[in-house]
Specification:
Layout: H1 14-29, E1 36-39, H2 43-55, E2 59-64, H3 72-76, E3 79-82, H4 95-105, E4 109-111, H5 121-129, E5 133-134, H6 139-146, H7 148-157, E6 165-166, H8 173-183, E7 187-191, E8 200-203, H9 206-224, E9 229-233
Parallel strand pairs: 1-2, 1-4, 2-3, 4-5
Antiparallel strand pairs: 6-9, 7-8, 7-9
């Protein structure tokens, strides 16, 4: 099913006309990399990507669940396709449906936004197999940095100090509980994929651990399609410093 967006008419303002004229000049001088892209996300992040793409002269394709049929990102895109019912596992996390929409719409690339499939190496690989560009890092980088467990292994091997914890592949509940006992409470249960605070639970005592583990795993599976977690010491008064690194396929940062 494809929905056509409504046209929104805003009052003409002189500065806006000037900005538009400048943008049109820039667009005409520099051809975009793609004619049409699909945004594999929803809500505000999808709207931001759509608006930026339009400024660059790129047509946009939205995907949506049945619950999001009247959402703003659906109305703002040039084309919109329903990919399933409300649960993310049946819609926004369905790689096969998103790839099918790429074929049907002629989208040359997919922008994943954040969350959902944005840190899923398998998704990036499947797109590459279909000849569709993944607007993001290569699958090898996603495996290394998209998994908190793998990135901690890399950092530890490089001698970088890490928060004490367990980030192994064995996800047996009894083993995770035993590791929490070794680390000492409070501990943090954290989904190894995704972000945004989803799949994270602070545990203050042993009696809370198993319920918190089950809750974190359910949320992680629903949000990212993967229930694996790590357990680490909870730092109660941290100082957070984050560094963003941007690069592109022509080896420039």
């Amino acid at each position: 099913m494809m929905r056509q967006p409504r046209m929104l008419v805003q009052p003409a303002v002189s500065w806006r006309r000037f900005a538009t004229a400048v943008q049109n000049t820039l667009t005409s001088e520099r051809r975009p990399h793609f004619d049409k892209i699909l945004i594999a996300n929803r809500g505000e992040i999808a709207c931001r990507v759509i608006r930026t793409a339009k400024k660059l002269g790129i047509k946009t394709v939205a995907v949506y669940s049945e619950a999001d049929a009247n959402s703003l990102h659906v109305l703002e895109a040039d084309e919109a396709y329903c990919i399933g019912p409300a649960p993310s596992a049946d819609s926004y996390l369905r790689m096969d449906k998103i790839i099918d929409v790429c074929r049907r719409s002629g989208a040359q690339a997919v922008h994943p936004g954040y969350g959902f499939l944005s840190e899923n190496a398998k998704f990036a690989e499947r797109l590459a197999e279909e000849g569709i560009v993944f607007i993001g890092p290569p699958s090898s980088a996603i495996v290394s940095m998209g998994s908190k467990s793998e990135s901690k292994n890399i950092m530890s091997a490089a001698g970088v100090p890490c928060v004490p914890g367990y980030h192994g592949a064995n996800q047996d509940a009894e083993l995770l509980f035993a590791e929490a006992e070794k680390i000492g409470y409070p501990v943090l249960i954290k989904a190894i994929h995704g972000g945004g605070g989803k799949g994270m639970r602070v545990v203050s005592s042993a009696s809370q651990f198993k319920d918190a583990l089950a809750s974190a795993q359910r949320e992680s599976l629903k949000s990212f399609g993967d229930a694996d977690v790590l357990v680490e010491k909870y730092i109660e008064r941290p100082r957070h410093i984050e560094v963003q690194v941007f690069a592109w396929c022509l080896d420039k940062c």
